[in-house]
């Protein structure tokens, strides 16, 4: 079985999180408070303390992840525990509320907690799904190597062009301009382009179309040059797909990390208000 962030140590952290959830659910079912279940009962306070400890543990993972010299456990195990106990938190936190919600800081803390959990699920999905896709897109090469491959394609196109001595000056000038514009065009122009994969408006694609059009009109010698540009279009498409997926993988942190900080602040306010008005 291939190891990933979910099945470390034969699903050890999944089993621990499930056991914890089953215990908590059992306590909630058999608890008989004098009032409606809520965060202010004995069980409610106990679940609240447990949820707060889990939140602190989850946030500590962010610190551990950046402590490259730390010997405090294997990072893969930290991540696996982070995922499974993060999911358990959704259950424990919900039972802590007793399903009592309202326009207050307590509900704000709960909503932020659920947002962090959901965004975490999104992150897990991406980190499990996208790395194999990224590897396939780049054929197990780095992005720098793929960029160098584009340069090699451009050099090949120029060699083919230089061998087409039979072309008239007007056609040669036009082809030279097409090849130059394709080679000099950036892979992406602006940051928003990192999320786009369409290459039909690129100079490479337009050059390919025009070369194919020349070939269809009788310029037989242009066939190899046209095929080279088709190869460049496909290569450019792969790189753009890679950049899009890589951007999406980092983009979710713009939601997950700020929400986690907001949750910590809301949790602090929640705990303070509980003890202040106790």
What would a concise description of this structure say?
This protein is mainly alpha-helical. The protein is built from nine helices and no strands. The chain folds into two domains: 145 residues, no CATH class; 107 residues.
Search tags:
278 residues; mainly alpha; 2 domains; 0% strand
What do these coordinates show?
The protein is an all-alpha fold and 278 residues long. It folds into 2 domains: 8-128 and 253-276, no CATH class; 143-249. The chain has helices at residues 8-30, 42-66, 75-97, 105-137, 143-162, 169-184, 203-216, 223-251, 253-276. Helix 2 runs antiparallel to helix 3 (75-97), helix 3 (75-97) packs antiparallel against helix 4 and helix 4 packs antiparallel against helix 9 (253-276). The longest helix is centred in the middle third of the chain and has 33 residues, at 105-137.
Globular, elongated, flat, extended or rod-shaped: what is the shape? Answer: elongated
Overall pLDDT:
86
- The fraction of residues in strands falls at under 5%
Distance between the termini: 51 Å
Low-confidence stretches: none
Taken together, the total number of domains comes to: 2
In which range does the helix fraction lie?
A: over 70%
Rg is 28 Å
Strand tally is: 0
User: Order of SSEs, N→C?
Assistant: HHHHHHHHH
Largest sheet: none
Structural class: mainly alpha
Q: Count every helix, treating DSSP H or I runs of 4 or more residues as helices.
A: 9
């Amino acid at each position: 079985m291939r190891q990933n962030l979910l099945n470390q140590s034969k699903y050890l952290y999944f089993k621990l999180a499930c056991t914890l959830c089953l215990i908590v659910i059992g306590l909630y079912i058999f608890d008989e408070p004098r009032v409606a279940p809520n965060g202010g009962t004995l069980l409610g306070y106990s679940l609240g303390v447990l949820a707060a400890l889990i939140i602190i543990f989850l946030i500590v993972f962010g610190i551990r992840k950046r402590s490259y010299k730390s010997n405090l456990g294997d990072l893969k195990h930290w991540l696996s525990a982070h995922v499974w106990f993060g999911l358990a938190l959704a259950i424990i936190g919900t039972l802590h509320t007793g399903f009592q919600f309202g326009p207050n800081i307590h509900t704000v803390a709960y909503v932020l907690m659920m947002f962090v959990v959901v965004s975490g699920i999104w992150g897990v999905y991406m980190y499990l799904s996208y790395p194999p896709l990224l590897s396939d897109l780049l054929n197990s090469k780095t992005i720098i190597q793929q960029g160098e491959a584009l340069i090699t394609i451009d050099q090949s196109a120029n060699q083919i062009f230089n061998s087409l001595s039979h072309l008239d000056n007007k056609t040669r000038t036009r082809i030279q301009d097409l090849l130059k514009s394709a080679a000099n065009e950036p892979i992406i122009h602006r940051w928003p382009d990192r999320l786009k994969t369409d290459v039909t408006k690129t100079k490479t694609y337009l050059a390919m179309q025009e070369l194919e059009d020349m070939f269809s009109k009788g310029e037989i010698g242009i066939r190899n040059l046209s095929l080279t540009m088709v190869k460049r279009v496909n290569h450019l498409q792969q790189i753009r797909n890679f950049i899009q997926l890589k951007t999406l993988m980092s983009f979710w942190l713009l939601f997950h990390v700020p929400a986690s900080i907001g949750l910590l602040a809301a949790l602090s306010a929640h705990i303070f208000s509980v003890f202040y008005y106790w």
